[in-house]
Structure formats: C-alpha cells, structure tokens
Amino acid sequence: MTHGPMRQSIEILRDNYNDSVRLLEATRAMLSTEDVDFAWAVMGTPANIEVLETEGFTGFDGVTANDLVLAVRADGDGVDAGIDVARKVLFAVTAAAEQGDRVLMTHLGAAVTEQPDTNVAIVSVPGPYATLETHKALTAGLDVLLFSDNVPLADEIALKTRATGLGRLVMGPGAGTAMISGTGLGFANRVASGSVGVVAAAGTGAQEVMSLLDRWGIGVSHVIGVGGRDLTADVGGIMARAGIAALEADSGTDAILLVSKPPAAAVAESLLSVAPSKPMVAALIGLRERLGHVSDEITVCNTLEQGAVLTANCLGHPVPDRVGATPGEVADVVTGMSPSRRRLVGLFSGGTLCYEAMTIATDHIGPIYSNTPLDADLGVPGPDGVHVCLDLGEEEYTEGRPHPMIDPEARLGWLEKQIDDETIAVVLLDVVLGDGSHADPAGTLAPVLARIVSRGAAVVAYVLGTDLDPQGFASQRKKIRDAGCVVTETAARAALAAAAIVNRDPALVHDEL
Length: 513
Known about the structure:
Layout: E1 6-13, H1 20-31, E2 36-43, H2 46-54, E3 68-75, H3 78-91, H4 95-98, H5 108-114, E4 120-123, H6 127-139, E5 143-146, H7 153-166, E6 170-171, E7 177-180, E8 183-186, E9 193-200, H8 203-215, E10 220-225, H9 238-248, E11 255-260, H10 265-272, E12 280-284, E13 298-301, H11 304-314, H12 327-334, E14 343-348, H13 351-365, E15 368-370, E16 387-391, H14 395-398, H15 409-418, E17 424-432, H16 441-454, E18 458-464, H17 473-482, E19 486-487, H18 491-503
Helix pairs in contact: 1-3, 6-7, 8-11, 13-18, 15-16, 16-17
C-alpha cells in the first residue's frame, strides 16, 4: 500500500461537552481507523492540552475545558478519516435515542426536564468540575455515579455526607462499575437478576464477583460502587455504610457482599461490628491481620473468589470446581522450560485483579514489584530479575490514550517486550469483557501471546465475563486458549497457576485460597 506523508490535525468544537466514556469510545474508533498513528478525543482541560502539545499538536489558543478537541496524526488521508469517525461516534443519534429509550444530553437541567422519572445521574467530567455537577444532581433528587477521578478528598467527604443526609447515594469518585436493578453503569458485565447485593470499593473486583455469581447461576440484585477511598480513615466508609443499609432495605436482596482492599482498621471495626439483618460476607482483598470487633454474623475473607464462594454458601447454593488450570497443564508448560526462566510478569487492565494476584502469588514466590505495590518499598522500577505486576490502567500508563480495557492494543507493546526476555517463566494477564470494554480483546491479544509461548515462556490468562456479555465469553476464552495459554476459572486461580509455574510445582494449583 502506498502511504502519503504523515499529517496531523486538530478539530476544536466549542462548548461541546462529552463525558469521558463517550470520548474513550471515539478515541478507540479513531485508533482503529486505517493509517492512524495517534488519536485522542478529549475535553480541552489544561492537562489534556499539555499532553497534546507534547505530542506536537498546536493551535489551542482560547480552548477551555468546555471545548471538545479531536486530535489525529496519520499517514495520507487517515487524518480526515479519523476525524470523521470520531464525529460519527460522538454525534450520531442512535435508534434507541430516537425511540426515547435513552436520551443523550450534556446539560443536567435539560436532562431532568426531558426525563422527569430519571433517578440516577452519571457524572463523568474532569475532576475540578465534578463536585459542582454532583451537587447539582443531588439537588435534583438523583443518586449519582461519580465516574470522574481527581476529585479532592474534602469534596468527596462533603458530597457523601450531604448525600447521606438526603438519603441518596454518591457512588464514587472514581467508581467505574455499578449496576442498579439490572442496568449496568460504567464498565459492567451483563448478569442475570439474582439475590446478592454487592457493595464495592473496587471496580474490577465488583466485575469479578458479579460475573462469578452469574456464572454459578446465582445472579445479582444491585452493585453499588463506592470509590476506592471510601473505606480509608479520611472518608470513614460513609457510602459503604449507606450502600449496605440500602441493600438491607431491598426486598430483592437476600445476601450482601462487600468488596474492598483492606480498609483502615477503625473503619472496618465500625462498619463490620454491627450485625446485619441479612447474611453478609466482607471480601477484603489481601487482608493479613485479624480484625477486631467484627460481628459474628459477618464472614471476612481475603480474595474475590472466597467472597463469591462464601456468599453462595450463605444462600445454600453449590458452586462448581474453580481450579481451571490442572496440575497436568502446569506440568506440560514447565517441562523443558529453561532453568533461567524464573520470573513472573503480570500485565493487568484491572487494578483490583492486579492487587489480588500479588497478594496470592507473593505467598508462594516472594516479593513482587509494582506501580501499585503491596509494600511501598516494592515500587517500580525494581532491581533486575525481580517479579513484576503492573496495573496498566493507572494514569501513568493511560495518559494520552484509552484505558487498556477499551483499547487492548495499549498492552501490545508491553507484551512484545516480554517475547525475547529469557528470564520470564510466566506472563500473567486479565481479559475483561462487558459493556464499555473492547469488542474483541482476545482477538487483539492472542497473536502476541502465541509468540510469547512459542519462545519458551508460559502465559496464564483469566477472562472475566459472562455468557451474556457482547464479546462472547466462550469464544474469548477459546481464542486465548488456542494461542497456547493456560486459562483459569477465576482470577485468583490464575495467580496460583502462575506461581505454580514459577516454582515448577504443579500441585500448587489446588492450594486453598
């Protein structure tokens, strides 16, 4: 194919706000356009403009945070094609909207007037503007999914305190996943209606337990995301407490599952010391020390898998075998593996899954270095030859490009770096399905995973999803397995399988969690 010279261009649409989810969809569409090298659909905040200027784009005089910026760099006619596809994504009126099923508006007052029965608002604006929009939504009598991050801590506390007084929920900030009465908000998997209510300070943690419960035939009533800071000492579990109370009052919820990284001890004792009116499990991922003053009516565990299993047990519901990787599979991949291959490298799109993997694998293979480490002394870059797990969804890796759940190509460069590294025994990764995620992540990742396997390392992958998800759960697993990867039934079991490969100990896959 003959390519023209590399060109780059911006288009600025004044006073044209779009939320971050739609902007990410437009960015993904542009990056999928032939000949496009770089593309970004963003609001014109100072931080975003700074990134674009670093990429060599100019012409931002007078641009404000209310202005939409489309930036594309491409060969030949790819620039015009990229801008065109972004416009189609952002401004096309869907058939559903025409029928009134879903009205897409950017002005809260207009939306409430047009849809007076609305009871939930999704706020997804740059952090400095999110607080005001959330207050507006609360004033309008709405519960809020606050998708935005970079919201000041003091604002989060004020918003949640006010919401509690109004009898409303503020799910977030930084809450990427929620599901209310079967409607997914943000990144969410499609699950059957059921009797378990989830309160989660962990986005992919919520997705993992809701997907497991669905696959085991139990289903979910609601998922209330509360944001990653809710259970810290500063915030004090304000919204977790409100979420639990809401689920206790819900006639369709028979059991409650709380999902979080270990909370501040005083917050945990306050939150978990009161006996709930319904069976409750607290899955505090990576919890090491025993908590004091926990009600006898609440079961505490430290992995997502345990949380889902124990919740099923509360309902008297059996769960299937969860090992996925068998000792035989591990034995096959380690047979003949070079003795120099002793390292684990984890490349995750889900931050909670990365954290859980490290808490499990560390017990078997030793310290793991990370951009989100279990111990502050284990930050990256670490010394040569260490185990590493990266959360590639963190801001330092997504600046200027979509989240890896939306654009799996964001991980391809990282995966390609592992192909020729003869110290690596196993590459560990997640593949997250559901609404908001890429249409075919496994298809994008499989070729490079096959190359890693062909060069002598193992790949262990976990596909997070359900049979209802649009990507096709079974077909996504098959694509990864056909690439020569070990595919497990839960995220926790993937971490165990990876540790088993590092240690050349196939029996480890049966270890208790």
